[in-house]
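Researcher: Next sequence.
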Amino acid sequence: MKRILITGANGQIGVELTPYLRKIYGSENVLATDCREGSGIVSEGGPFSLLDVRDGKAFSDLMTSFRADALVHLAGILSATGEAKPQLAWDVNGNGTFVALECARANSAAVFFPSSIAAFGPSTPRRDTPQDTLQRPTTIYGVAKVTGELLCDYYHLKYGLDTRGVRFPGLISYEALPGGGTTDYAVHIYYEAVSKGAYTSYIAAGTFMDMMYMPDALEAVVRLMEADPSKLVHRNAFNISAMSFEPGQIAAEIKKHIPGFSLSYDVDPVRQGIAESWPDSLDCSAAREEWGFSPRYDLALMTADMLRRVGGKGR
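Model: Next structure:
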């Protein structure tokens, strides 16, 4: 990657990945785009343009004028929000990804596409979920992610486009609150632990989901995009994860730092249903073997760092 265009740069991943890439490749070489104005660090730290990813002409014109040789396509509507607005979610996540791949093909640009554990469904093996397995998601978000995975494979096979991607688990970050995802509780719990000393979880006790701390996710994107293509057997939709836990386990780690912290439950049936359709834990061996995926943070290390950083924001 030398000159990179990012879509969805004001989202949970984009607000951290954009400055991360600018530090590596130079601010002038990373064009951030989004359908709305947002974080100052994104719009003021380097070039920024408004972009609706469904507008193929505007999208292609931007890629051409910027001379982008890589596209990081983050734009999308998350799982719980998508269930409330499925038509919009398909339009942005499904049609938007097709437009993105067409623009990349026209400009001979490499593509990074983030898929998700939402690409799996209730018929997928729940534990040690294989890299290659049955994918029958029951959310529009998951359907669009599977479609994106298949489209990326198709564009590589049909046109030789350099497409690469991962299946992200829940991502935990202190920089930006997520917006409308099922795994969001694992971010909110830290903020409320610091501010209130208590948290009410909308995910039920005993519900395991894969998670990763954002610093590991950012490193994974660059490591995959810079990997030797001759080593990539799969190219797209690599399983990656750093940990799998349920709400009680994250609460137990928080109590080591905030002994009076308390956890209660008020389960949201929509998000709980989505969570129960996803795997408990992923087999990430393909990512480790093909491009050296190696996360640094486990639950204990992440919790200590999150509480320190979230607590520092309140001072």
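Model: The chain has a mean pLDDT of 94. The domain at 171-210+242-280+296-313 is CATH 3.90.25 (UDP-galactose 4-epimerase; domain 1).
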